[in-house]
């Protein structure tokens, strides 16, 4: 029976906690700390323990998620460092905070894993990538993976991929929102009321996403399957191609990734 | 079976070379005709062992399968010339872009009740037996006629039957396609040269790359998008290059090109149906030579001083009073 702790009670912590509850973890085995009570309510409602003491969370947990804003990480880690043992797994979800920095702030030989989730963890449809620190063994990764299974897609990779994951899937979520908004606006331009257009746009994105994930087919294949000869879709796609959408999207992922790298260097 | 070509230009030469290489018909059973004996292709055809004549009527009398391999605006002259000599055994296969089966049938029906007409759109790589051909069957052509044509054309590449209304799109895609490929290889070679390769090597490698990729695609069940992915290692050279291509709108350019070619084909067909072609569209020398053929008169094909009536349904020869 694993005891899980969260330092920080924001959206990321909540999303991950909810995911774990959908799996095998009991609410009583999760403890969350935050300086104020504002965000702790929703954890309590689900039966999880709450506290204002970060050390309390660390001492009582086998796996500790550090889910505070990046600039607060050094402060929090220096506060709890002396309570961290060699048996605990420290999982940081802070963007731009490298394994090297985490290991520097924690006792020698600490087991550290860096995790990059994304917003849809909130609805258990996240995309999560983790990278193991120097002392984290494959079994530690496997344990984390088993805890996070219900949060969405969980993959492991070298730390270098985390910035790419940020660009692709962290920021990628926003790119999709932009696309959905534009779809809806196109419909409004053609005469559909806005609320309906938005509702249909979101369902379109959702439905297409599910088909893409569940069919196992290449997106190009699925795209071809939707395009009847001389039909509406191929006309629309041509317009998209003329607008250079593909290149824009590639460049967007590139920019976001570059920025993540930059932030990581600071 | 003997095969005839009305017209002895690039298309006739390419098809003859291909048929000959495929061994599907002996060249001495092929006849080609053209008023212009100076064409370089004429020498080539003679060298291949084809019977060459300046008389289209002779081609008709010697052959069963007649390929109309002249430019679209010459078709009406040819049809008027050979119309009276068409017999039941003849299968007319028009290769002229934009010329409809119904327009050919309409013309020939002045001379014969049920002319067997087919229309095909092929492309120049038939010369190396890697052609792309589609054909549509006319009103009076039988299933066996289709099979015969398919057998001939399949010997020089891919061949399949289609609905006639798709032929313009095929023209835009595989008719013009080799030109797009030549342009691409030329430019790829430029890229190679820029980066230090000798020109000949660059052209060879560029062409081989396209050939190899096409072969992989044709042999594979996979979507080209998937095959593309297979070539792109993460963060590697190829994906960087692909991004450059996407930024340049490569895909939409190709879509636009196919569309432009298809639309132009339809325009030419529309002009033809409108029965107005400017005399400038017909080279004066060719027109003179054609008009010198027995059975072809300016009146008969409705040559007027302003505009030429190409498919004149009120043929002066059959004027009713």
UniProtKB/TrEMBL annotation, chain A:
GO terms for molecular function: pyrroline-5-carboxylate reductase activity. PANTHER family: PYRROLINE-5-CARBOXYLATE REDUCTASE, PYRROLINE-5-CARBOXYLATE REDUCTASE 3. It catalyses: L-proline + NADP(+) = (S)-1-pyrroline-5-carboxylate + NADPH + 2 H(+); L-proline + NAD(+) = (S)-1-pyrroline-5-carboxylate + NADH + 2 H(+). Its EC number is 1.5.1.2. This is Pyrroline-5-carboxylate reductase. It holds the Pfam family F420_oxidored. NADP(+) binds at residues 7-12, 67-70. Belongs to the pyrroline-5-carboxylate reductase family. Pathway: Amino-acid biosynthesis; L-proline biosynthesis; L-proline from L-glutamate 5-semialdehyde: step 1/1. It comes from Fundulus heteroclitus. Residues 159-263 form the Pyrroline-5-carboxylate reductase dimerisation domain. Transmembrane segments: none annotated. HAMAP family: P5C_reductase. Homodecamer; composed of 5 homodimers. Residues 4-96 form the Pyrroline-5-carboxylate reductase catalytic N-terminal domain. Keywords: Amino-acid biosynthesis, Cytoplasm, NADP, Oxidoreductase, Proline biosynthesis. It is found in: Cytoplasm. SUPFAM superfamilies: 6-phosphogluconate dehydrogenase C-terminal domain-like, NAD(P)-binding Rossmann-fold domains. It is an enzyme of class 1 (oxidoreductase). GO terms for cellular component: cytoplasm. Oxidoreductase that catalyzes the last step in proline biosynthesis, which corresponds to the reduction of pyrroline-5-carboxylate (P5C) to L-proline using NAD(P)H. Proline is synthesized from either glutamate or ornithine; both are converted to P5C, and then to proline via pyrroline-5-carboxylate reductases (PYCRs). PYCR3 is exclusively linked to the biosynthesis of proline from ornithine. It comes from the Eukaryota. The keyword Oxidoreductase applies. One of its GO terms (biological process) is L-proline biosynthetic process. The keyword Oxidoreductase applies. Its main location: cytoplasm. NADPH binds at residue 54.
TrEMBL record, chain B:
Pfam families: F420_oxidored, P5CR_dimer. It comes from the Eukaryota. It catalyses: L-proline + NAD(+) = (S)-1-pyrroline-5-carboxylate + NADH + 2 H(+); L-proline + NADP(+) = (S)-1-pyrroline-5-carboxylate + NADPH + 2 H(+). One of its GO terms (biological process) is cellular response to oxidative stress. NADP(+) binds at residues 6-11, 34, 69-72, 95-97. SUPFAM superfamilies: 6-phosphogluconate dehydrogenase C-terminal domain-like, NAD(P)-binding Rossmann-fold domains. Residues 3-98 form the Pyrroline-5-carboxylate reductase catalytic N-terminal domain. It is found in: Mitochondrion. InterPro entries: 6-PGluconate_DH-like_C_sf, NAD(P)-bd_dom_sf, P5C_Rdtase_cat_N, P5CR-like_CS, P5CR_dimer, Pyrroline-COOH_reductase. Pathway: Amino-acid biosynthesis; L-proline biosynthesis; L-proline from L-glutamate 5-semialdehyde: step 1/1. Its EC number is 1.5.1.2. It is an enzyme of class 1 (oxidoreductase). PANTHER family: PYRROLINE-5-CARBOXYLATE REDUCTASE. Belongs to the pyrroline-5-carboxylate reductase family. This is Pyrroline-5-carboxylate reductase. It comes from Fundulus heteroclitus (Killifish).
């Amino acid at each position: 029976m694993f005891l899980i702790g969260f330092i920080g009670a924001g959206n990321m912590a909540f999303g991950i906690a909810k995911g774990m509850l959908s799996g095998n973890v009991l609410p009583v085995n999760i403890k969350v700390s935050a300086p104020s009570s504002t965000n702790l309510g929703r954890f309590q409602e689900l039966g999880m323990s709450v506290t204002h003491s970060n050390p309390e969370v660390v001492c009582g947990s086998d796996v500790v998620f550090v889910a505070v804003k990046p600039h607060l990480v050094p402060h929090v880690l220096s506060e709890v460092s002396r309570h961290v043992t060699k048996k605990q797994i420290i999982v940081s979800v802070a963007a731009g905070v490298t394994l090297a920095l985490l290991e520097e702030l924690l006792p020698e030989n600490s087991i550290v894993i860096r995790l990059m989730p994304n917003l849809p963890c909130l609805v258990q449809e996240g995309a999560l990538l983790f990278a193991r620190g120097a002392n984290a063994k494959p079994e530690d990764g496997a344990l984390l993976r088993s805890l996070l299974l219900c949060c969405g897609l969980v993959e492991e990779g070298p730390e270098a991929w985390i910035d790419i994951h940020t660009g692709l899937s962290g920021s990628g979520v926003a790119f999709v929102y932009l696309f959905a908004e534009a779809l809806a606006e196109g419909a409004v331009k053609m005469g559909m009321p806005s609320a309906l257009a938005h509702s249909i746009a979101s369902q379109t994105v959702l439905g297409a996403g599910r088909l893409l994930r569940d069919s196992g087919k290449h997106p190009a294949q699925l795209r071809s399957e939707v395009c009847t000869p001389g039909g509406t879709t191929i006309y629309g796609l041509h317009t998209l191609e003329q607008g250079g959408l593909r290149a824009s999207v590639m460049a967007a992922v590139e920019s976001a990734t570059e920025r993540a790298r930059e932030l990581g260097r600071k | 079976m003997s095969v005839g070509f009305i017209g002895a230009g690039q298309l006739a030469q390419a098809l003859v070379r291909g048929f000959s290489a495929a061994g599907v018909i002996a060249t001495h059973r092929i006849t080609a005709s053209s008023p212009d004996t100076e064409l370089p292709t004429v020498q080539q055809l003679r060298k291949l062992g084809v019977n060459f004549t300046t008389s289209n009527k002779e081609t008709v009398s010697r052959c069963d399968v007649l390929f109309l391999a002249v430019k679209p605006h010459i078709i009406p002259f040819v049809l008027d010339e050979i119309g009276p000599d068409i017999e039941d055994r003849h299968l007319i296969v028009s290769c002229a872009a934009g010329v409809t089966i119904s327009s050919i049938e309409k013309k020939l029906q002045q001379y014969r009740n049920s002319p067997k007409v087919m229309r095909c759109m092929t492309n120049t790589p038939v010369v190396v037996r890697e052609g792309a051909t589609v054909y549509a069957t006319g009103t009076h052509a039988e299933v066996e006629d289709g099979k015969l044509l398919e057998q001939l054309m399949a010997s020089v590449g891919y061949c399949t039957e289609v609905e006639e209304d798709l032929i313009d799109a095929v023209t835009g895609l595989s008719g013009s396609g080799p030109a797009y490929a030549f342009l691409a290889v030329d430019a790829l070679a430029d890229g190679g040269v820029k980066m230090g390769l000798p020109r000949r090597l660059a052209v060879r490698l560029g062409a081989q790359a396209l050939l190899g990729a096409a072969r992989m695609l044709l042999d594979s069940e996979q979507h080209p998008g998937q095959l593309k992915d297979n070539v792109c290692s993460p963060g590697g050279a190829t994906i960087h290059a692909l991004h450059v291509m996407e930024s340049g709108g490569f895909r939409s350019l190709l879509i636009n090109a196919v569309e432009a070619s298809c639309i132009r084909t339809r325009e030419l067909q529309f002009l033809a149906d409108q029965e107005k072609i400017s005399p400038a569209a017909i080279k004066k020398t060719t027109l003179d030579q054609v008009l010198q053929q027995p059975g072809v008169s300016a009146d008969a094909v409705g040559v007027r001083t302003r505009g030429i009536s190409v498919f004149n349904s009120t043929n002066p020869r059959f004027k009713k009073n």
